[in-house]
Amino acid sequence: MDQGLHLAYFPFRGRGEPILLLLVDSGVPFNLEEIPVVTWEQWKKTREITSDKFPYSALPVLRVRHEVVQNGPKEFVLAETSTILTYLNETLAPAGTTLEKDLPLEVRVRIQMVKEAALFAMVRILGMSGSSELPHRGPPSAAS
To answer: What are the GST N-terminal domain coordinates in residue numbering (predicted)?
Structure first.
């Protein structure tokens, strides 16, 4: 099955960075759409940000396209960093890998708790930078 991945995020580090790192590290082909903040703000004003394209009206967003022989192309959109990471973790894992979903419930919820705390801390740290200019990340070399 052919899989197309399209990640949309701002052109700086933030909640999209862990997703980008996982995609680059996996070596799977994907497209990266860097949406400038100015463009995002304009889209908000013109109501171009719709729930079918951007669930929760937020970034990052991962569009997943599967080529299904019987039914033609199928696409779905995922939002929220932890949700996207969970999806990629399971779909990109090598055969024989113990997946999080196979672990006992208590272990899974503890893992989720740590993930959420790490994401919260990352947002707090980025917010403490004090800079009004957000650093540009630059395009990843493996996403060409």
So the answer is: 3-96
For 44, counting Cβ atoms within 10 Å of its Cβ (0-12 exposed, 13-18 middle, 19+ buried), the class is exposed
pLDDT digits (tens, 9 = 90+) for 72-122: 668 889 999 989 998 998 888 877 777 777 888 888 888 888 888 887 787
Residues 6+ apart with CB under 8 A from 30: 4, 5, 6, 7, 23, 143
Q: pTM value?
A: 0.69
Token pair in block for residue 26: 């996996």
Residue type, 91: T
Nearest CA to 85 out of 68, 102, 100 is that of 100
- 37 residue type, one letter: V
The single-letter code of the amino acid at 105 is L
Task: Name the token pair of 120.
Answer: 């919260």
- Is residue 83 within a helix (H) or strand (E), and if so which, with residue range? helix 81-92
Per-residue model confidence as pLDDT tens digits over 22-78: 999 989 999 999 999 999 999 999 999 988 899 888 999 999 987 654 566 688 899
One-letter amino acid at 8 equals A
